[in-house]
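Repro:
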Amino acid sequence: MSLEFFEPVDEAIFGVSSLLPKQVLGKRIKIHTKRLGFPELQDAVRIVLFSVDENRNGFFSSNSYDIDEFRKQFYLLYPGNWSLEVADLGNLPRGKTPEDSYFAIKEVCIDLRKMNIIPVIIGGTQDLTVAAYRSFENNNHWVNIVSVDNRFDFSKDEDLISGKSYMSKIIMETPSYLFNYTNIGYQSYLIAQEELDLMEKLFFESIRLGSILDDNRISEPVFREADIASFDMKCLRSSSDGTYANGSPNGIDSRTICALSRYAGISDRLSLAGFFDLPNNMLFHKLLAQIIWYFIEGVNCRFSEYPVNTSQKFKRYIVPMSDREMIFFQSEISDRWWIELKNENYLDNNLKSNTLLSCTHQDYLDACNDILPDRWWKATKRG
């Protein structure tokens, strides 16, 4: 079984948490150590953390991340009022080649998701998203990827896999089971016009940095449709990630990245998350511990609204427009919104007759003003 690959957590890091109250995470979660052995992944375990030190395909030179310093900070935090259990499986050693590492990550994610456990990958470069994507190859459904990144990570070289080109590899793989890719936080001056043109041609979605800083709530419907959330921590501004002069003056701040992590966790559909390209300094160790905490908090607050069953506790709104009629649904439990997509909007008749696409209240208001929601339009074109 792939879970046998893991190396235990270094027990030396427990010296700090041993003096703390029994309520801290270091004393509450299941941890793979040499003394205690591999944790029992019972039904209550919903989230599993593990680290990967695979950065050989990083586009930029990258030092190894000190995962033990992160664990020290994470284990010091107190859990929320969580009804789920979390396990730390330790470290997945890098393979002989990057492809060996991809294979190991893929197999681990497959095995964990078969147990209805959400894998959270910590460390390495963002090209590991390819391995996460490949773990869905036998799932018989389309896959949606949301990437929090300041770039789109496309490349003209189809054979190259790196942290700056991995999305090109995913798009070109056959058979393809990618339905949608959404970028959150891109910065226009880091994006070539050809990349923007490709996003438009494939009807993929993107949210600019300024928009997400103005209102991070617009990311929630995007995460609600995601199977994979991939976070490239180079998206952060230098004052938030501790890189200062070596980092970027513009980027996502610490408050917003925690909110995005929570939205990813709260998505009923999302079943895999990864946090990559991690700055190696004390300020970021503390920030990453809080980012992971908010992801777990989000998972604990899920509404169990996927797949959506509109026959119970949903309000239905019919909006007549100049050239069509649109149907919206609002949950009475979560107050979230969906828009109905009819099969006639699709090119693929194998899809079910009607499906729902997550949206915002503003999309409903736009439709009332005879404005087509952009997410609806792109979803119909992708179909």
